[in-house]
Amino acid sequence: MHQRVVRALERAGFVVVRQGKHISMYSEQREVMAIIPRHNPVKRTTLNAILKEIGMSVEEFVEFL
Fold first, then answer.
1. Which is deepest, 12, 32, 34, 65, by most CB within 10 Å?
2. Model-level pTM?
3. Strand, helix or coil at 62?
4. Which architecture does CATH list for 2-63?
């Protein structure tokens, strides 16, 4: 679910900056924006693309779940 992705990214230091059909989150530490679709569930390929774009490994993401 997209809420779990959002919570994990918040634990990683991201902050929600905008909400609509997608949730925009920004990290000052990484200086990058993450765009999470409000899909339930978020597809694996979509999540992999988001993680690649923000420079986070799957293993690192799992630690924040």
1. 34
2. 0.92
3. helix
4. 2-Layer Sandwich (3.30)
